[in-house]
Every structure is written in structure tokens, then in C-alpha cells.
């Protein structure tokens, strides 16, 4: 595992995350009552101090009532303002030393404010879901909210027994006592805070395909009345899984789940080992199949291979966009070349002031970033040829599995697979703003 931990605060969200320490494991015990939308929780956080002694540290947590805070069993001094729980241990933690934080909190969860509206915990008509990208995780649990700080998780969630709980990871136990049920999930793979997914609702569970020995179990959790349409819309997901494992390398987690909510969602949302779709993404006509491919591809690119900070988000979205094109090409739809040409035409009609390598916070989720990111991958494919290109893709996923990456790491990685220099190509596509020529245009003209 290659981890490139960012040295300082995230330039886009300096109030989120604390680079002075890193978390090894979160153990979260939650009790949620959907009717009054009431959440109470206990977090046990195992962490390691950085290179300097830790006289204080910060966890991100929204406006809850704090019941108790302990550091290595001792009561620290703490303040809780503006979504930041600032903790001063009774005795500074030595540089490089492990320490444990325990936090008890309770209140009515709600999304945290962001430039894109509310993020994180969202109360549904009958249940709740979590969609945290990029800064919504503190809406429901205390965390070091930076994508580079990846940890393992155990989630224990108690709810009324009428509700199912779906989280990313492996379901360890489900225990019913009187009118409540406790669900315990384990996510052993390193996970960024924003990628911890959770859904609470009334769903039917189906198995997608037959994983066979050594295969990846894939489950769908769907409202009963959408089951028929879902069965058609997600029927080819097992084929996507096989194809992506061929092209990208082994699936990086134990299982994969998809949830369809009763409500509509603007866009699907990826979490580690889990993707959330709205009822509007199910139409019985595979109308959102490209999004099924996009979210699945994020399990490799974005979730297993994560970004060191939010400047590099194109490494998540560009790769997932290109996975859409690869699936279309393999499944009898338009080829990647045709889809690249359509993306290039679209971008040529739009302002050319977006720099992939540092789009700025306002443009993190700009459609142009997705399309241009896909075109970068297509340009690299045209330059390297298919054999070297797919070796490069598999190598990227293998080398950085469970770790974090930067744009500079990607450009260096591509160079190792190219017989010819690719510096100018990557400089123009990733660091420039003007739209370069359509990838492969010169080769077609010569032909």
C-alpha cells in the first residue's frame, strides 16, 4: 500500500481535517430513531500522533450535544464550536505514539452546509441516508475529515426492527432484542471519512448474479415496488464487475451493495463498498446504466485509490467517466472513441478556463472536469496503445490499493509505461486550460 499523506491542511477545506495525527480505526456505536430523527453515538478512535508531540488536536463534528470526551481514559479539556471539536489532552501525546479518543454525542442529525447545499446525514420520509462527499461526514460522527486519512471501521447501528440498515463492508451480526435490532458491519479496508456509507429504511434484499467460488457478492436493497424495474436496470452489473476486474484488477473490497431509495437523488453517490441511487435512476429501461458503471468504477478509482486532497478530484471522476465509455464500448454501445469525440465537441463549446490539476473548490464537480478527465484517459490510451494502457491502469490500481495519490504520481506512473515522452501531452491536458486537439485525431488524419 502506497500512502502519500498530504503534509498540511486541505487547500479547499482548511477547516476540515487535522494533519497533525492520523486515525488507524474507528469503532462507532450508534442508536437512531427515525420518528423523532434522534441519533446518539459513541466513537472509539484509535489514532497515532505525527512527527511532533500532540498538545492538542481537532476532530470534525457537527452541532451535537457532547456527553463525554476521553483521551487514553483521561478527561481532557475540550471546546466544540463551528463543527470543530478541539481537544487538549491532560498530558501531550508523544510524537509517533498511539492514543485513543472516546466521544459520546447526541442530537438531531441534519446535513452540514456546503457550497453544494446540505451534505451528510439526510432524513428521508421513512429512514435516513448518508451522502457525505466531500465534507458531510461530521454530520453524523466525529472524524479527522480529510480524504488522505484512511482508517478501518466497525459500525454498530441500533434501530427499530422494522428498518433495515445497510453499510459499506461485511455484515458481522444482526441481533434483535424486543423492538430494536442492532446491525454490526466491518470495513477492514482503509476508508476515507466521506466514503463511510449508511442507509436506514425498509428494503427488500436481492442477490445480483451468482458470484461463485471466490467471486464478489453483490446485493441490491430496493423498495419492494421498484424490484421489477431494478432487476432489469442492474441486470448487467455482474458483467460490469467481471469486465472491470479484467481491466482494472481484482475488486478491492469484500462485497458490493447498491441501494435504491424511495426518494429521488440528483446524482448517485458512491461510498466504500456501497453505492446509493435514487428512485429516479430506476426506469426499467436501463436509462441510467452508465451511472451504474460509473459508481462501480469508483470502488477502484476514488475509494481504493483515493486522493491526497481535493485538488486531485479529477483522478476520481475522470477515471469513472472513462469507465463508462469502456463499458459502453464492450457492451455494444458507442465506442470510447465516439464518446470521446462527443465529449470533445461539448467542451469545445464551453468556456476553457478549467485546470484539471487544480480546478478550485467552486469547480470540483463541474461537468467539464468529468468530461475532460475522461478525455485525459483516452489521450493516454491513444498515446500508449491498448496493451500498455491497460497494463498502466491495472498497475495504478495495484500499486496504490488502499492508499492515496496525487496528479504528480499519476503523470509519473504513465511515463513508466510509455515508449515515447508524454510530458507535453499530459501538461496540456491536465495543467493547461485550453482544450487540446481530440485524442487520436493526428493518427486518423495520417491514416
TrEMBL record:
InterPro entries, per the entry: Aminopeptidase_N-like_N, Aminopeptidase_N-like_N_sf, Peptidase_M1, Peptidase_M1_aminopeptidases, Peptidase_M1_dom, Peptidase_M4/M1_CTD_sf
Catalytic reaction(s) noted: Release of an N-terminal amino acid, Xaa-|-Yaa- from a peptide, amide or arylamide. Xaa is preferably Ala, but may be most amino acids including Pro (slow action). When a terminal hydrophobic residue is followed by a prolyl residue, the two may be released as an intact Xaa-Pro dipeptide
Pfam families: Peptidase_M1, Peptidase_M1_N
Domain of life: Bacteria
Required co-factors: Zn(2+)
Domain Peptidase M1 membrane alanine aminopeptidase span(s) in chain numbering: 238-429
Molecular function GO terms recorded: alanyl aminopeptidase activity; metallopeptidase activity; zinc ion binding
Domain Aminopeptidase N-like N-terminal as annotated: residue spans: 26-195
Alphabetic keyword roster: Aminopeptidase, Hydrolase, Metal-binding, Metalloprotease, Protease, Zinc
Assigned protein family: Belongs to the peptidase M1 family.
PANTHER family to which the protein is assigned, alphabetical: PROTEASE M1 ZINC METALLOPROTEASE
UniProt-recorded name of the protein: Aminopeptidase N
Organism in which the protein naturally occurs: Streptomyces luteogriseus
Amino acid at each position: 500500500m502506497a500512502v502519500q499523506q498530504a503534509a498540511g491542511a486541505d487547500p479547499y477545506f482548511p477547516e476540515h481535517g487535522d494533519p497533525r495525527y492520523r486515525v488507524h480505526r474507528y469503532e462507532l456505536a450508534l442508536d437512531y430513531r427515525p420518528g423523532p430523527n434522534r441519533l446518539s453515538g459513541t466513537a472509539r478512535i484509535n489514532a497515532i500522533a505525527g512527527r511532533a508531540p500532540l498538545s492538542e488536536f481537532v476532530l470534525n463534528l457537527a452541532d451535537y450535544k457532547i456527553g463525554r470526551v476521553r483521551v487514553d481514559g483521561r478527561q481532557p479539556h475540550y471546546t466544540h464550536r463551528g463543527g470543530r471539536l478541539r481537544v487538549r489532552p491532560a498530558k501531550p501525546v508523544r510524537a509517533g505514539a498511539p492514543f485513543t479518543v472516546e466521544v459520546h454525542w447526541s442530537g438531531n442529525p441534519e446535513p452540514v452546509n456546503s457550497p453544494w447545499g446540505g451534505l451528510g446525514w439526510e432524513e428521508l420520509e421513512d429512514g435516513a441516508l448518508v451522502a457525505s462527499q466531500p465534507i458531510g461526514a461530521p454530520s453524523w460522527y466525529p472524524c479527522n475529515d480529510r480524504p488522505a486519512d484512511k482508517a478501518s471501521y466497525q459500525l454498530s447501528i441500533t434501530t427499530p426492527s422494522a428498518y433495515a440498515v445497510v453499510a459499506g463492508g461485511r455484515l458481522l451480526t444482526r441481533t434483535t432484542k424486543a423492538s430494536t435490532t442492532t446491525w454490526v458491519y466491518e470495513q477492514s479496508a482503509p476508508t476515507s471519512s466521506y466514503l463511510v456509507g449508511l442507509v436506514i429504511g425498509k428494503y427488500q434484499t436481492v442477490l445480483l448474479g451468482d458470484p461463485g467460488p471466490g467471486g464478489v457478492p453483490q446485493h441490491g436493497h430496493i423498495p419492494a415496488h421498484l424490484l421489477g424495474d431494478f432487476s432489469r436496470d442492474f441486470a448487467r452489473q455482474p458483467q460490469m464487475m467481471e469486465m472491470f476486474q479484467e481491466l482494472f484488477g481484482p475488486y478491492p473490497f469484500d462485497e458490493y451493495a447498491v441501494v435504491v431509495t424511495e426518494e429521488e437523488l440528483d446524482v448517485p453517490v458512491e461510498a466504500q463498498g456501497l453505492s446509493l441511487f435514487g428512485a429516479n435512476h430506476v426506469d426499467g429501461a436501463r436509462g441510467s446504466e452508465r451511472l451504474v458503471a460509473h459508481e462501480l468504477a469508483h470502488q477502484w478509482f476514488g475509494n481504493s485509490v483515493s486522493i491526497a486532497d481535493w485538488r486531485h478530484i479529477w483522478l476520481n471522476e475522470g477515471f469513472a467517466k472513462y469507465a463508462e465509455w469502456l463499458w459502453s464500448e464492450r457492451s455494444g454501445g458507442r465506442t470510447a472513441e465516439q464518446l470521446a469525440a462527443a465529449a470533445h465537441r461539448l467542451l469545445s463549446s464551453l468556456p476553457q478556463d478549467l485546470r484539471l490539476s487544480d480546478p478550485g473548490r467552486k469547480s470540483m464537480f463541474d461537468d467539464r472536469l468529468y468530461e475532460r478527465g475522461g478525455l485525459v484517459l483516452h489521450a493516454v490510451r491513444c498515446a500508449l496503445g491498448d496493451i500498455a494502457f491497460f497494463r498502466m491502469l491495472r498497475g495504478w490500481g495495484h500499486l496504490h490499493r488502499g492508499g492515496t495519490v496525487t496528479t504528480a504520481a499519476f503523470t509519473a506512473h504513465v511515463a513508466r509505461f510509455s515508449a515515447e515522452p508524454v510530458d507535453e501531452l499530459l501538461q496540456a491536458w491536465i495543467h493547461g486550460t485550453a482544450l487540446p486537439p481530440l485524442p487520436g485525431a493526428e493518427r486518423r488524419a495520417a491514416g
